[in-house]
Amino acid sequence: MISTIVLVVIPIAALLLFIFLSKSSSTAKCFENITGSKTDIKDYLTLCASNCWSKHDYGKEPNSVDCYSITVNSREKITNKDIESISKNFNVKSYLNFDLNENTFYKIKLRYDYSKQEISVINEGYCGNNIVEGTEFCDGDATVCQANNFGTCTGNTLCNECICETQIDCSLCQPPTTSNPSNSDWCKYCKSTVEFSCSDGIDNDCNGLIDNNDNFCKQQSQITLNSCKKGGDMTCPYNPCMINREKNGVPYPPCPNNVKNSNTNPADIDSCDSTICMYESIHNPSSNYLNVYDTQTWNDLKSEIESQLQTIDFVGMKITVNKRLVSKFAEVESKLNKYPHSGRTYYFPSGTYTFVNGGSYNFRYNVNNPTVLSPHSFGLAIDLNVNTNWGNVNDPDPCNNPSCIIDIPPEVVEAFESSGFRWGGRYWCSFDPMHFEYIETCR
Question: What does the domain layout of the chain look like in residue ranges?
Answer without folding.
Answer: 29-123, 142-223, 227-442
